[in-house]
Amino acid sequence: MGMGGARIIDLRTARILGLALAQMWLAGCYRGADDDATGAATGADGGTADDDAGSGEESGDTGVAGCEGVQAATAPLRRLNDRQYRNTVVDLFGGVVEPSAHFPETAADQGYTNDPDANGVSLMNAEEILLAAEGAAAQAVDRFAEIWTCEPGQAESDCAAAFIADLADRAYRRPPTADELAALVALYDAHRVEHGFTDAIGAVIVAVLQMPQFLYLVEEGTSDPELPAGVIALRDHEIASRLSYLVWDTMPDAELRAAADAGELHTAAQIDTQVRRLLADRERSAPALVRFYREWMEVRELLAVDKDQDAFPQFDDALATAMDEEYSRFVERVLFGETPTLAELLTSPRTEVDATMAAFYGVAAPTEGWGEVELPADRRAGLLTRAGLLAEHSTRVASSATFRGKLVRTRLMCDPIPPPPPGAMAMAPEFPPDSTARERTEILLQEPSCGGCHQLMNPIGLGFEHYDAIGSWRDLDVDGGPVDASGIVNGGAEPLTGEFDGLVELGDMLAGSTLVRDCVAEQWTRHALGVDEAQLDTCTVDTLAQRFAATDGDLLELVVAFTTADAFRHRRVEEG
Amino acid sequence: MARPASIPNLRVTSRRTFLRGAGGIAIALPWLESIATRRAHAGGTAGNAGYLQFIHPQGTLVDRWAPAAGNALVLSQMLQPLAGLEPELVVVSGVANTTSGLNQMSNGHNSAGRTLLTCMPFADNLSNGALLPADQQVDNGPAGGPSIDQVLADRIGTSTPYRSVDFGVGGAEVGEYQMQWAGANDPVTLEGDPLLAFDRLFSDLDPEMPTTMTRLRAARKSVLDTVDGAFGQLTVRVSAADRLRLEAHAEKIRELEDRLDNLGGGGASCGVPVLEVPPDFAAWDPALDDQAAKAFIDMMVMSFACDLTRVGTLQFTDYHDPHFPWLGLPIPGTYDSWHTMIHEVPNGGDPAPVQGAMDWYMLQLAYLITSLANTIDGPDGTGRLLDRMLVVSLSEFGNGGTHSTQQLPVVLAGQVGGALATGRHVAAEGATSGELFAGILGLFGFEDQCFGWAEECSGPLGL
Fold it and tell me: Which residue among A243, A401, B384, B391 is least crowded, i.e. fewest CB within 10 A of its CB?
């Protein structure tokens, strides 16, 4: 005891066992599980894409077998999430209005925050939306001179009409209909009598900020007899909204609106130009893109109380905040650096640190603020070695082979893991106090109702064992012996299968894996459309995966490929 | 609960105008005559019963909670924090939530949490009202019906400004512990931030509210009407699936609009409550949950005193990893989390710190009941708010360590306007939670024989 080398299950047995159990997984890890694995893009090989990326192909021939013709994606009606709402209010009023804290927070534990299921509207939410609208309108009223100026000599009612038309146009992200304008003007008129010009304007603002055309990305599209049944083509303005909220998390800017207004935002070439422009505006695009990489890896900012302060007194709020920011900056550096590829994301030893993170990672601090560094490449290479990610996927007191293995399995390999069997907590095996993750894993794998699923997760998670509960590097395990970071990917596909030692090696396997590359395309699609696994269109994902492969996993080209595909411009809707 | 990313500061100035007596004792602003006139509610609030749920998670220590046999109320060890309040209480022992087990694929928590107040299996485990066999069941999902508080809101809460007032101590994120449902697939969200709750509920009672806001609020009816019209125009143009979402939203707007005419009554104790949390109170910080609890309890009491609502819920939402730092107890000690600590009690884990935390929950209940008792109510200002209330203290488990939904720790308080005789123990061995809620509906004058899943019901529990 104390030497990490002895394992109860020898490698060869585990590998065979693993493959057999992986087959069992296809019918559920344990008896009674739903087999609802859909959308896992396995086996897509990269191959030869017949279409040129970004060339403006209109025919919709993706070159993916079984996906001929114009492709469309199922996309549920999406409401602006809390971040998008705040950004939009800021932009709508040119920075004069501070968004209200009342606006409902989007549930962050329901998968991607673009998912409409995370953005429902309860009665209280409706009231919060109303309060937020009033909060914004009150500011706009008090500072109206900074938002709008009437023309010299302009009649008050004309000024109001002009303001209302402009507000509705920008808030609805398209020219308002005559009926929509009439309703707002009627509201203004009704209030003008009793309350004066600015208060009446205020009432209109309160209304506009609650309108469905504002809060939702409404996609009525146009039907076309040449399109397959149940498929609509999005209108230029609807494409502008999709683009803007995807890449910037806010409303379209003037240039994007101009393109939509001119009817020049519906071909792949037109979209290609605009999406590249939006991506290049790093100040706006970085936070929106980084948001995906945070939600994908389930990284949330921790607090000091999330870790045992006796065991980890160094984990205070300042460190928690710093490692959270370092995660974001690592991602941003990859996306906007010389090599914005998936491989770089998964293997790069470079990052940005401040004094706190420099001390944590054991490198020299920058002279001030944050600066780019190269970390020891045998310890910190790629996304999975980020302290913030490792700390998030641990328990309060210890590393967790389950959490880390589950992350890789579900988010990098797109293999869904069924939930634990009923009563799992109550029947959980007893772990000896101060046991290592490896010891706990061995106990779990021997439990009949636990081993089937944990076999898919924990042997991977054990490869993370050099990183403790707060993501620090350790050479010694909690039992005083040297860390054994050997792991096994059961199932999978070359090169992501079988044994590995430590995260650097795992990172290389992940970086070379078509399974992972395809999974990234799937996860991006889920985020972008707000869909869960069951709603994914296989052709949409496979087409994207193919183009992603053709660009050698370029993460910015992924966004271009997604937005220039048919499926971005066409929506599948229910009949009737 | 994660720290929110740069939430802008709330612009609330009214709290700073509170009067403070000598020594910093906070006193409520006197009820201003002009507002009382505006809010006069015909008939006042006498005899208008209110329902208030107090939900503490992870159950209790069942062997220390069980009352002695007989009708006399002798407080058990777990109920000692309620000492002195016996005349106000009815302790109900032996109630079991039998619907939880109908969700056979649950991890134990999501079913217990979602069936506690609804007494219905998950909506996805039902087909045409019949329970699906286990191999077709899901492990989690929306509840199969409305929760008791929302049913009561439908029946007794139509005349108040708020359908219900629902607070989450520990934040609004409930995860699998989504307990309140306005209907199948229609969850009720909680307010998790005392400052935002205050602003929402009380700022328009405050004569110091900024005038722009006052004027804007006066426009609500026509604004909501305009918005409702826009939803109506849009829904006919969109796809069927989109229409469902828009209509669900529009329904809420209409309900908001309907309630605008409900002004609430100027009860004898109604005033702007004094919040003892600072203006920059960090609601996301779990170390401050004791302060949040007090603020929420104070606001809940005042919500009823002002007749803003007839239905309220106070839920302690952090069932997984609260630390209770203000208690100075080793929680979670060497355990991974409070949740793990609870699970280890049946395996020989030390119950003392667990009891310490559960005592704190009961102390909050005691504070709530005491506050209601000390709040003057009624048309001639001689009644007590508690006397027209029913407070129901509950948890989703009896023995949290074993995920047992038997022996639920049910404590009632208040006479419900005379319908409930207090100061006793009701031994209800074999009663289901559905029967308990049917009995509770009876206290409000309704004649439901069952609540929720009728298959397990043999009539309302006599209370």
Answer: B384
B320 and B395 within one domain: yes
In chain B, which residues have their Cβ closer than 8 Å to the Cβ of A219?
242
Q: Does A179 touch chain B (CB under 8 A)?
A: yes
| Facing B223 at nearest CB: one of A108, A135, A203 | A203
Main-chain dihedrals φ then ψ at residue B383, nearest 5 degrees: -85, 170
* pLDDT tens digits, A13-45: 444 444 444 444 444 565 433 333 333 333 333
Is position B2 within any domain? no
Pair A405, A457: CB distance under 8 Å: yes
Residues of chain A in contact with residue B334, where contact means CB-CB under 8 angstroms, are 397, 433
Whether a cis peptide bond, with omega within 30° of 0, leads into A176 is: no
pLDDT tens across B384-419, in order? Answer: 999 999 999 999 999 999 999 999 999 999 999 999
> Domain check: are B63 and B96 in the same one?
yes
Q: CB contact, 8 Å: A107 with chain B?
A: yes
Q: Are residues B198 and B218 in the same domain?
A: no
Confidence (pTM): 0.89
Domain span at residue B247 reads: 10-39+214-260
- Count up the domains in chain B and report the number: 2
Amino acid at the residue B245: R
What amino acid is encoded at A143 in this protein?
R
**B150 with B228, same domain?**
no
Query: Does B240 sit within 8 Å of A574, measured CB to CB?
Result: yes
Q: Say what the ipTM of the complex is.
A: 0.89
Q: Considering only CA atoms, which of A478, A487, A568 is closest in space to residue A525?
A: A568
SS3 B222: helix
The reply to whether A99 touches chain B by the CB within 8 Å rule is yes
Does residue B71 lie in a domain region? yes
- Min Cα distance A73 → chain B (Å) is 14
Do B301 and B413 reside in the same domain of the chain?
Answer: yes
Taking CB atoms and an 8 Å cutoff, what residues of chain A touch B234?
212-213, 218
